[in-house]
Write a structure and sequence with these properties.
mainly alpha
């Protein structure tokens, strides 16, 4: 489970970086809180952060359940795939929102893999 813990910390650090990038984009754009519209570059950074948060709500519990009930190495590798998917997602989204698809797809497949392996592991344990 150490690898699962390490990947969890990596995902939390990635989210923290995305959050700091939103803060930097807010400062650069001059958009004052609580506003979240008005500058396309800020809005893209903000959407990457929020979309990542939405995905983490599903991915992190599935990561841990997959690690506990299926296989911790498989879970960690799927978690790394999610991480890399988020890197690609962000890179695509900040260039042009229509370029986010590949990163989103990788992250989605990784999350589905985590949910599937977690479910299999839990059902097997019953």
């Amino acid at each position: 489970m150490e690898y699962v813990a390490l990947v969890t910390l990596l995902l939390v650090a990635q989210y923290m970086v995305f959050t700091m990038l939103v803060g930097a984009a807010r400062g650069k754009s001059g958009i004052k809180a609580p506003a979240v519209t008005g500058d396309e570059n800020f809005e893209r950074a903000y959407r990457v952060q929020m979309n990542t948060l939405e995905q983490l709500v599903m991915t992190l519990p599935a990561l841990w359940l997959s690690g506990m009930y299926f296989n911790s190495l498989v879970a960690a590798l799927l978690g790394l795939a999610f991480f890399l998917g988020r890197v690609l997602y962000r890179a695509g989204y900040v260039k042009a929102p229509e370029k986010r698809g590949a990163g989103f797809g990788i992250g989605l497949l990784a999350t589905l893999g985590l949910i599937g392996t977690a479910l299999w592991g839990v059902l097997t344990a019953l």
